[in-house]
Amino acid sequence: MESNCLPFQFVVKYTIVHVHNRRKQMNTTALIMAGGRGERFWPKSRKNLPKQFLSLTDDGKTMIQLTVERISPLVKLEDVYIATNKDYKQLVLEQLPGLPEQNILCEPVGRNTAPCIGLGAMHIAKKYEDALMFVLPSDHLIKFNKMFLRTLQDACEVAEKNSNLVTIGIAPDYPETGYGYIKFDPHTTEGRAYKVDRFVEKPSLEVAKEYLATEEYLWNSGMFIWKVSSILKNLKKYMPDTYSGLKQIQNAIGTDEEEHVLEKEFTAFQSQSIDYGIMEKAEDIYILPGTFGWDDVGSWLAVERIKKTNEFGNVVDGNIITINTTNSIIQGGKKLIATVGLDDMIVVDTDDATLICSKEHAGEIKKVLENLKICNREEYI
């Protein structure tokens, strides 16, 4: 499957962000996690072309390109690391020309975010004695880039002190049940950041309403800022077995044994999230509220937030005719799609598959893939 996207060598437009040099400059690096499948975006997102490599915005850039471009005023391309798997290495090279090939970290198996982040930290520690490290998903969109960069700068100031681990929380504007939440202490601050009280799982609607009313909970965005030394110190303390294996991998970087050691050690890791493995246990955890137009693009419903709707409330892309069709998302290609009398529907057409789904059931698209796996119809996954 081909990816239709603009070349990345573009024009990285460096947004001018005025940084007040209140601190000694430390190298700033980034680990971008790009190994996900994006199953809720089926049938556009597939095993061989997941969501992060798709263009969902009108500028034609893919989500991973936008992620790297967004942080370019703060992080040189040579200091950006992409954590993915070997199936996507070529896609990364195609979409991010100029990225050093050794900065593409191919996990032999998926082991959740803690081993992934640890692998990135070990590679950065091999290059620099210490450095600031952003950890970012590759498939989120942000509307107000300058505000996002300002938040990252504020986070850097907190992360440079002691062994602070900083995360960015999104100020909730409605009681969402699909995100985890982070409770903070409004009376304990460090710069613009608040001390984290606890991480909580995805709540019921009633509990989410209670969280919203307290004004002491933020959505968990999965974005982190810390010094490499800080996260490695905490990995050693709270996940010693994983840390030990990561040190073996680090020692093999650049040698003939690197691939063998990576395969052996990484495969042996327990699958564990950074939240559960570190953030829920560590002491110096801080959170900065983010108000920069964040969207995790978790399902086809996000397209309505990203793209403009027409006078009938529809978002259409492709060769489309709509008659008495309202509030619907219709995505196609060259093939003509004609809809009559639809309301609140999602229609997505590709060369070999078509999705027709009510918006109300958009969260159940993953069940289609589960069914395809059971029926051994791997060619559609």
Helix content, binned percent: 25-40%
Secondary-structure element sequence? EHEHEHEEHEEEHEHHHHEEHEEEEEEH
CATH superfamily of the largest domain: Spore Coat Polysaccharide Biosynthesis Protein SpsA, Chain A
Mean pLDDT: 93
Distance between the termini: 12 Å
Instruction: Tell me the structural class.
Output: alpha/beta
Radius of gyration: 21 Å
Q: In percent, how much strand structure appears in the residues?
A: 15-25%
**How many domains make up the coordinates?**
2
CATH architecture verdict of the largest domain:
Alpha-Beta Complex
Number of strands: 17
In which order are the strands of the major sheet placed? 6-9-7-8-10
The largest pleated sheet is described as: 5 strands, mixed, barrel
What spatial form do the alpha-carbon principal axes imply? globular
Provide the CATH topology of the largest domain.
Answer: Spore Coat Polysaccharide Biosynthesis Protein SpsA, Chain A
Report the top-level CATH class of the largest domain. Answer: Alpha Beta
